[in-house]
UniProtKB/TrEMBL annotation:
Pfam families: Sigma70_r2, UPF0122. InterPro entries: RNA_pol_sigma-70_dom, RNA_pol_sigma70_r2, RNA_pol_sigma_r2, RNA_pol_sigma_r3/r4-like, UPF0122, WH-like_DNA-bd_sf. GO terms for molecular function: DNA binding; sigma factor activity. NCBIfam families: sigma70-ECF. Keywords: DNA-binding, Sigma factor, Transcription, Transcription regulation. Belongs to the UPF0122 family. Might take part in the signal recognition particle (SRP) pathway. This is inferred from the conservation of its genetic proximity to ftsY/ffh. May be a regulatory protein. SUPFAM superfamilies: Sigma2 domain of RNA polymerase sigma factors (SSF88946), Sigma3 and sigma4 domains of RNA polymerase sigma factors (SSF88659). The lineage of its organism: Bacteria, Bacillati, Bacillota, Bacilli, Bacillales. Residues 10-75 form the RNA polymerase sigma-70 region domain. This is Sigma-70 family RNA polymerase sigma factor. GO terms for biological process: DNA-templated transcription initiation. Gene3D superfamilies: 1.10.1740.10, Winged helix-like DNA-binding domain superfamily/Winged helix DNA-binding domain (1.10.10.10).
Length: 165
């Protein structure tokens, strides 16, 4: 390839937007655009002209990258929902004033960092969205997602029955 990547990006940017629109992706933070651009760059670097047309290869790589990111986000969303239902089950929210196991919550608080606790308290106990938690704490939504991921890893290691010492 004799073109520089900026020229390739300019040429194939409409394809990137077409694929984002094809899957009806709402890309507020630009994650999907970035993933598509990385896929385009990889296609540009890896392209073997003996196998297929460059435009077909680019379409395939970008399409595959976007679908992978969609699957990844769906899995993350499913896992988040699992933990929300796990920790919101009968013991936490049915009768908030009577059924909270404060000892258990204090143990969870001790296990988590301050930021992870902010996620747990806001998202699990108070039913706030990640965006709301991010805005309240002056951070990005991705930062809150990271707190969530790290907290869930710690919580996964400590099931409630085995958690009490």
């Amino acid at each position: 390839m004799e073109q520089c990547f900026e020229e390739v990006l300019k040429q194939f940017e409409p394809m990137v937007y077409h694929l984002i629109n094809k899957y009806r992706i709402r890309d507020v933070e630009g994650d999907f655009y970035q993933e598509a651009t990385i896929a385009l760059w990889r296609a540009w670097k890896d392209y073997d002209e003996t196998k297929m047309k460059f435009s077909s290869y680019v379409y395939f790589r970008i399409d595959k990258a976007l679908l992978s990111l969609i699957r990844k986000q769906n899995k993350q969303s499913d896992r988040d929902q699992y933990y929300v239902t796990l920790f919101r089950g009968d013991s936490v929210t049915e009768d908030f004033n009577l059924s909270i196991d404060f000892v258990w919550l204090e143990q969870i608080k001790q296990l988590l960092t301050d930021k992870q606790w902010l996620w747990f308290k806001g998202h699990i106990l108070e039913d706030k969205t990640l965006k709301m938690i991010a805005e309240e704490n002056g951070v990005t939504e991705n930062a809150v997602k990271n707190w969530s991921r790290l907290a869930r890893e710690k919580l996964r290691a400590c099931h409630r029955p085995n958690f009490v010492e």
